[in-house]
């Protein structure tokens, strides 16, 4: 039996055809190739199924009642997540006008009836491989852009450290920039232990999401669970809150903040945990990538250096 994870990695194909027998044959043919299949009997069902399931590919009959395949294809291309998804139109029409109409509607390719099943299987494999390559390219492009943004952030912090700086302004600006770069809904930076005077707390939160203010910082940082890891300088990642081992009280508080995934970076100053950077993904779970964690780790070192400089400057000023 396949695991849930392996099933999720198997391409999902949406078959849309008003003819039940054709739908069944297409379903069996695709399952024989090892794909998962969902069905729709008309254009409206096809649009709804695409929105709900986000399939990897659509096999779409051109001639359907009420909404034909050409119109359905055009509307599919207007839905979020459809950009690089292949849509293969299956049609009994082989005239040039119909072919032109299919491509104008946004079809990736077409195949004519009667269906030659070996040809269909080969076409599906090729289109899925191309789609996967485009998806990987887009992922690498976005990763490169993010890395460039991280680089600019590090350069900005380093430049500020090379001259007299206000620690509060530096930390506040970093939290704001970090939320944008990481593409998350909330970033919190707080001083873990209260020293003389007020504890430093900085928060940048996207519009429409609640502030952490009513919730104790110890719960925000999961200090009771992960303090040992923080003291060892380890970054803590929880990619899916639903699967995290949290106390009922903590889970309730975190759910109030709409947290779905979190990454927490300890800031180590003079071999002690000075504070934490807490990064909250609030829309969906997020598998934090290794290269991202490296960037956050380096950010922790930079911020520790800034805080150490500020403490030294404060100590020198006090001793005068």
UniProtKB/TrEMBL annotation:
SMART domains listed in its UniProt record: GAF, REC
Domain Phytochrome chromophore attachment site: 166-305
GO molecular function: kinase activity; phosphorelay response regulator activity; transcription cis-regulatory region binding
Pfam families, alphabetized: GAF (PF01590), Response_reg (PF00072)
GO cellular component: cytosol; protein-DNA complex
Domain Response regulatory, chain residue ranges per copy: 12-128
UniProt keyword terms in alphabetical order: DNA-binding, Kinase, Phosphoprotein, Transcription, Transcription regulation, Transferase, Two-component regulatory system
Residue(s) carrying 4-aspartylphosphate: 61
Biological-process GO terms, alphabetical: regulation of DNA-templated transcription
Top-rank taxon, per record: Bacteria
The keyword Kinase is annotated on this UniProt entry: yes
InterPro entries: CheY-like_superfamily, GAF, GAF-like_dom_sf, Phyto_chromo_attachment, Sig_transdc_resp-reg_receiver, WalR-like
Protein name: Uncharacterized protein
Natural source organism: Hydrococcus rivularis NIES-593
Species lineage: Bacteria, Bacillati, Cyanobacteriota, Cyanophyceae, Pleurocapsales
